[in-house]
């Protein structure tokens, strides 16, 4: 074998195989794929559900609208015939005519309007047979493709506006099965993206904090309680901004909506209240509306969880403070029926303890290591000192029992 060939063979055998993708990059790709895959699965499931609902409900909707149209034309014809041929001479005749002819026509108009039958599809009185044949066919707007997909999304998100609903037995059975599978899937997607939003908000907050001037950083609380409270407040403000942006978009899309109506709809939707009194009707933006709702639900669930944690933290703090403090107040209340000088001395000790803790907070101690339990420890120490002083004092002569002259009731809340 020639020398050059041997050299190339040795170099080729000494080369190590290169890794195509780093482990960290591969992990990120898998994470992104899992998040996107969940969302795509939900969207496909929602689309399939909308198409199935449309196929099940559309024939019944056409039949219903045609029946309402025929009934409306019949009642209108009877009304016109009675007006031309009847003679009303008194109120009794008028009441009979109203009950027999006018009321059925008004009921037919009301039923047609409630079911979404457009009055443009009703031929005019002067229309000829040729005009009737040329008239546009009935369009079931309630079960168009976009409306059906939007309806499926309201089932999955448990909003349920109530303006559109399945009327056939097959549609209702499918609705039950669709919800049983789809609602857990939707909650999984909302929880997954809610976690992403929480991590994103936390990351953005840390970056903004590092770039703030020192004067502004000194105003931001550094203890854990202050950070949690500030985070909850920032999350609520972020939700309000998101709702305001949605309200502005809906105000542009829905010509008869004001900004407040758009904000009201967004709030009722994101909290899954879903009254159904205000619902978008423009079919062009139904898909975007569905995406906006899904993102908003993830954001809302995250913010509600942050606020709930803040409430829980405040409640635990309240319980930690209320135990020893309430016991001290009870002892003070019992002593109020005896020697008032002892009561005044103990009360001054508690007041001095509270004032010293307040001075520590104002002097900047909270920026370092002032813990949440310092208040409780200070009051416990004061209470123990009071008990020790009572043991050293000589016991007074027994007096006849007196009713307490003072009751102390304190309501606390740090929420």
From TrEMBL:
SUPFAM superfamilies: Voltage-gated potassium channels. Pfam families: Ion_trans_2. It comes from the Eukaryota. Keywords: Ion channel, Ion transport, Membrane, Transmembrane, Transmembrane helix, Transport. It is a multi-pass membrane protein. The chain crosses the membrane at residues 36-56, 143-161, 173-191, 230-252, 259-279, 285-307. Residues 140-197, 238-308 form the Potassium channel domain. Signal peptide: none annotated. One of its GO terms (cellular component) is plasma membrane. GO terms for biological process: stabilization of membrane potential. It is found in: Membrane. GO terms for molecular function: outward rectifier potassium channel activity; potassium ion leak channel activity. PANTHER family: POTASSIUM CHANNEL DOMAIN-CONTAINING PROTEIN (PTHR11003:SF142), POTASSIUM CHANNEL, SUBFAMILY K (PTHR11003). Belongs to the two pore domain potassium channel (TC 1.A.1.8) family. This is Potassium channel domain-containing protein. The lineage of its organism: Eukaryota, Metazoa, Ecdysozoa, Arthropoda, Hexapoda.
């Amino acid at each position: 074998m020639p020398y050059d060939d041997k050299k190339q063979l040795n170099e080729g055998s000494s080369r190590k195989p290169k890794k195509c993708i780093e482990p960290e990059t591969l992990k990120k790709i898998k994470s992104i794929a899992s998040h996107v895959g969940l969302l795509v699965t939900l969207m496909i499931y929602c689309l399939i559900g909308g198409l199935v609902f449309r196929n099940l409900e559309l024939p019944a909707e056409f039949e219903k609208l045609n029946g309402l149209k025929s009934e409306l034309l019949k009642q209108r014809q009877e009304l016109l015939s009675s007006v031309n041929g009847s003679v009303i001479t008194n109120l009794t005749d008028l009441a009979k005519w109203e009950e027999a002819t006018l009321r059925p026509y008004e009921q037919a108009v009301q039923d047609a309007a409630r079911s979404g039958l457009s009055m443009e599809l009703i031929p005019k009185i002067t229309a000829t047979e040729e005009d009737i044949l040329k008239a546009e066919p009935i369009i079931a707007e309630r079960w168009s493709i976009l409306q059906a997909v939007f309806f499926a999304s309201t089932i999955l998100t448990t909003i349920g506006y109530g303006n559109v609903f399945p009327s056939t037995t097959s549609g209702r059975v499918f609705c039950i099965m669709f919800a049983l599978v789809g609602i857990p899937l939707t909650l999984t997607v909302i929880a997954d993206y809610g976690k992403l939003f929480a991590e994103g908000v936390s990351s953005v907050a840390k970056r903004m904090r590092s770039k703030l001037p020192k004067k502004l950083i000194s105003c931001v609380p550094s203890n854990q309680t202050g950070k949690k409270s500030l985070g909850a407040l920032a999350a609520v403000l972020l939700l309000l901004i998101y709702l305001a942006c949605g309200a502005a978009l809906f105000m542009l899309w829905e010509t008869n909506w004001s900004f407040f109506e758009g904000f009201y709809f967004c709030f009722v939707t994101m909290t899954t209240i879903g009254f159904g009194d205000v619902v978008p009707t423009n079919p062009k933006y139904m898909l975007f509306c569905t995406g906006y709702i899904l993102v908003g639900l993830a954001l809302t669930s995250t913010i509600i969880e942050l606020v709930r944690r803040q409430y829980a933290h405040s409640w635990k703090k309240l319980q930690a403070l209320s135990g020893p403090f309430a016991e001290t107040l009870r002892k003070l209340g019992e002593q109020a029926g005896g020697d008032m000088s002892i009561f005044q001395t103990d009360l001054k000790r508690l007041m001095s303890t509270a004032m010293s803790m307040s001075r520590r907070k104002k002097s900047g101690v909270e920026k370092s290591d002032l813990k949440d339990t310092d208040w409780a420890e200070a009051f416990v120490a004061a209470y123990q000192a009071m008990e020790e002083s009572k043991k050293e004092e000589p016991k007074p002569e027994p007096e006849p029992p007196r009713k307490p002259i003072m009751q102390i009731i304190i309501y606390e809340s740090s929420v």
